[in-house]
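S1.2 Input.
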Amino acid sequence: MRRFARVALLCLGCGVCSLLYGFSQLALSLEQEPGGGRERQARDPAAPGARRQAGGGRAAVLPAGPAPPALFLSYSVRCKNLSVSFWNSYWMLPSDVCGMNCFWEAAFRYDYMKTQPSEKMHLAVVACGERLEETVTMLRSALIFSIKPLQFHIFAEDQLHGSFKDILDDFPYEGKVNYTLYPITFPTESAAEWKKLFKPCASQRLFLPLILKNVDSLLYVDTDILFLRPVDDIWSFLGKFNSTQIAAMAPEHEEPRIGWYNRFARHPYYGVTGINSGVMLMNMTRIRRKYFKNDMTPVRLQWGEILMPLLKKYKLNITWGDQDLLNIMFFHNPESLYVFPCQWNYRPDHCIYGSNCKAAEEEGIFILHGNRGVYHDDKQPTFRAVYEAIKNYSFGDDLVHSLLQPLEVELRKTMHTYCGRVYEVFIKQLTKSIRDSDARRSKGR
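S1.3 Output.
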């Protein structure tokens, strides 16, 4: 009988230990933060080329140097928050993510869903040449309506860093936005080829998952993007990804008769009309882990392994550079892409030949994409009017009187153009965003 009791006690002890271990691993997976840890770049302040932090801790400027990972340093933080727990099973977490105390810290935080701070949204942009003003206007539009804190990752040529710093340090909303400036960097052995692909610096976006290793999820946008509703709303698509999806983009065209890829492309492309990469939402943890099917080898390749072989195979056949490479990748891996509607990436092609974005007609434009330089010429005055209105808006002024009403006056002057005939779609969502912003302000949120 005593022997039986001892065996039962031993079994009970083993069961309790197993249960504790299971809970500890669950706590680990529930605690990982989207950024993979509090990012703060470490540099010896006395090192050549290093710059001080600016903006009361809001900014970090990284010096130029060798390609990653040596350039981008950060440290892990124990007990990350729960934001991406359902994406990161405990056996896939790096060993240094959590310490021994994580379980005990998490175990008693049963109400973590209520007590965790707001999730930070990561927004990346690449700016080269004469893109300073355009980039700053995009960042202003992101700030005006967004609710959760924003972290800007700005990749720019060295000569632009000082100007970015001077402008962004004067942005209001202390505590709502932080930014980090990065140099333009490509893999050393193929830097020349990547730099000259399509437009200067354009292909930098392909390397963001490899550079920003501690960022879990990221919204990349071109410099000619304008947000007409909170960034929070497109960020929420991350929660709609199924288990295989790693990124989200909009179709290149809604109308195949005017589509470029289906008429002219000399390479594989996604879907019926291809995809546009000017607005690209990424779960970069999944991107880094995925092995991609391809037409170069029967072996699946990871993100860092597939880029250069793709370029070598198709460089004579591609027109739009990195966007074409993304189309090729998702042609072979269609299950990995989430496609969002056209009003999340509304371009001149959606109206210059007649309105063909039905979603925008019904709900308005959510994100405006002024490609082809339409913000800076008179070919599409409707797009330029929106750009000028946001560029000239002063933070803190009344949004209705200082932004919406002057914009509507200018838009009415464009009704002689195809896009101007549907000018209401340019202000429909903007009007709602302003109304929602005023309501939050009145509630003190």
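S1.4 Remarks. Residues 255 and 356 are 7 Å apart (CA to CA).
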